[in-house]
Specification:
The chain has 12 helices and 37 strands. The chain is mainly beta. The strands form 9 sheets. Strands 2, 32, 33, 34, 35 and 36 form a 6-stranded antiparallel β-sheet that branches. A 6-stranded mixed β-sheet has the order 16-17-20-21-26-25, with no helix packed on it. Strands 1-7-6-3-37 form a 5-stranded antiparallel β-sheet, with no helix packed on it. The longest helix is centred in the N-terminal third of the chain and has 11 residues.
């Protein structure tokens, strides 16, 4: 999915961590008492019984490198010619070693090729260095987000002990999303590595390291794009002056043959509010003129991450939800790189995916899928997802739901602006921005939904008509409803009327919806929705679904008799 974090700065912290290990051990009782005092009761967000087991959707599958002709029912529009590319985990063990977390599985690339009403499917495992190393030794050699690689069993006891003090290798298992830079497509996660891929053959062609071009230790798997192809992203950096968040710009075109992300620049650096525990983030917002970064109280404990291998813990052990901290919005002028002086805060929440952002009447409006509890990542341990019966129900009922919210950030706030007044001039939203006595602006959200979305389990994996409406005032977005731990419906949301259209088929689990516009149309919802729909029922086929984006009715489906795991993100590329 979409929820991975591997700060590359752990290499630079590792030596310091080893030096201070005696201090850490000495103070362990203090840490335990602190943790014991700050634990909170688990909040139950809904009750559900009798959930079907989805374990077959989270198990290792075989790749299908040769094209398989799909059986088409209904019809695929003749103008719909191109590739739907998706990626996600597809292999969850090597030999006797098993991964612990959904995000850890080896990247499996999926391709649906559509041409004049026909559909062909193929899939391939990404031949990353991590995949090759694991395969060669038939065990997990390189650690992932939720799984610590164990020492080589062929070494003696002393060598295995010493190996804990070696800097851990960074994974290049880029299993989160397809991203585009300078016309080329890359597979990305959140480490410093990306893998360039041939979208027709699904073959890896080159491994690219962000840190060879700019001073960052990684970048998100959700960049934004200007109409001319200029790409913006965000990354992290840890150095002598502490931790900072970086706004990155990559030029739209190549200057010379063989270029990748040459010419990338850091245009703004944002200091972390807390040096030792910066925020984890998965995406950010962008309008025509601004980048919006959200510093949220899902924290990365740098010390824990740096010492994870010594302590015998996975990287995920360094993440924690800190609800005593508020959420802060940072706004950056993407043309000048200037960080705007406004200090915008809200109550603590976590967002993994932004929906859209735009400017109106001197304000930035940003819409997000939000959760009020940041412990979601623990839910997606594979042992939880593969449970059955009451155990599965308990996991789901302990999970927090994600809902769409709107925030308004007034940009030009006068020093003389009255305290206590709502500074938002926008009459169409109840979201408010109120200046406090200390000069901070307190932002309260508007819910972009009614009670019927509660019954759908909330919404995630939001998508819009990106090519025509990203960074602009818009009306519709699409996502997955979650009446299960995996998406079990497709939803169209009208953010003006707050009404829904829902597609669901019992026993089937649709992927992130991808909007594809009808050529030549200016209508926001003039197009189709593509989604890969899978089932754990071996008597049924998985299929590529096509919906009319306007009325949300099915146009057709292309069935493929191949087992597929539930994945993360993807994109459509027209031919």
């Amino acid at each position: 999915m979409f929820f991975r974090v591997f700060p590359h700065f752990i290499r630079s912290l590792f030596t310091t961590a080893v030096d201070f290990l005696p201090v850490m051990v000495h103070r362990l009782p203090v840490f335990k008492r602190y943790l014991g005092n700050t634990q909170q009761k688990k909040v139950v967000f809904g009750q559900c019984r009798g959930l079907p087991c989805v374990a077959p959707l989270l198990t290792t599958v075989e790749e299908a490198p040769r094209g398989i002709s799909a059986r088409v029912w209904g019809h695929f529009p003749k103008w719909l010619n191109g590739w739907l590319l998706r990626i996600g985990p597809g292999k969850f063990e090597f030999g006797k070693d098993k991964y612990n977390h959904w995000f850890d599985g080896m990247a499996l690339l999926h391709q649906f090729k559509m041409a004049e009403g026909t559909v062909t499917y193929r899939s391939k495992f990404l031949q990353s260095d991590t995949y090759k190393a694991n395969s060669a030794q038939n065990r997990i050699v390189i650690s992932e987000f939720g799984t610590l690689a164990l020492p080589d069993p062929c070494k003696n006891v002393f060598e295995r002990f010493l190996s804990r003090f070696e800097p851990p290798a960074m994974t290049d298992n880029t299993n989160v999303n397809y991203v585009q830079y300078k016309g080329d497509y890359y597979l990305s996660t959140e480490t410093n590595f990306m893998n360039k891929v041939d979208i027709e053959t699904l073959e890896k062609t080159e491994k690219v390291d962000w840190s060879k071009f700019i001073a960052v230790n990684g970048a998100t798997a959700h960049p934004h794009y200007d109409p001319d192809g200029t790409a913006y992203n965000m990354g992290n950096s840890f150095g002598p002056h502490g931790f900072s968040y970086k706004v990155i710009r990559v030029p739209p075109e190549k200057v010379g043959l063989g270029e990748t992300i040459h010419g990338a620049q850091v245009i703004c650096s944002i200091a972390s509010a807390e040096k030792g525990t910066p925020s984890y983030y998965h995406s950010f917002g962008m309008t025509r003129n601004y980048i919006i970064f959200i510093e949220q109280p899902l924290k990365m404990n740098l010390w824990k991450i740096a010492t994870s291998k010594i302590r015998g813990k996975a990287f995920s052990d360094g993440l924690s939800w800190e609800p005593q901290c508020n959420t802060q919005f940072h706004v950056v002028d993407k043309h000048t790189g200037q960080l705007l002086p406004g200090r915008y805060y809200s109550k603590p929440f976590v967002t993994f995916h932004q929906i859209n952002a735009f400017e109106d009447q001197g304000c930035v409006v940003i819409d997000l899928c939000c959760q009020d509890n940041g412990r979601t990542l623990d839910i997606y341990q594979l042992q939880n997802l593969r449970k059955t019966g009451e155990g599965l129900d308990q996991v789901y009922n302990s999970a927090v739901r994600s809902f769409p919210r709107r925030f308004v950030l007034p940009l030009n706030v006068s020093l003389n602006a009255p305290e206590g007044d709502n500074l938002s001039p926008l009459s169409y939203t109840s979201a408010s921005a109120v200046k406090q006595a200390d000069g901070k602006i307190w932002c309260s959200h508007e819910n972009l939904h009614q009670e019927d979305l509660d019954k759908e389990g909330g919404i995630e994996f939001p998508q819009i008509n990106y090519a025509q409406f990203n960074g602009k005032k818009y009306r519709f977005f699409y996502g997955c409803g979650f009446r299960h731990l995996l998406g079990d419906s497709l939803i169209k949301v009208d953010v003006v009327t707050k009404t829904l259209k829902v597609w669901r088929e019992d026993g089937f689990y649709p992927s992130e919806p991808i909007f594809v516009p009808v050529p030549g149309t200016n209508e926001e919802d003039g197009g189709v929705i593509l989604s890969v729909v899978i089932t754990p029922n071996q008597n049924e086929s998985n299929f590529l679904l096509v919906l009319d984006a306007k009325n949300f009715e099915e146009l057709g489906r292309a069935e493929v008799p191949v087992q597929m795991p539930y994945g993360f993100h993807g994109t459509f590329i027209p031919i």
